[in-house]
Amino acid sequence: FWYRGLAQGGIAAVGQLQLLQPFFGLALAATLLHEQVSPLMVVVTLGVVACVFGAKKFAR
Prior knowledge:
mainly alpha, flat, 0% strand, single chain, 60 residues
């Protein structure tokens, strides 16, 4: 499934969807598993995404 999506959409475009995985993970845990999502979890998730963007920016 993943490799077919990469082939159809292109690695650069589809690979960017991986940056949304922390948000989808929190949302699915809250809705499907009825887990409590604390504000700290959201802050840490945003911090991880900020680090990824920073690493991509300075890697050039």
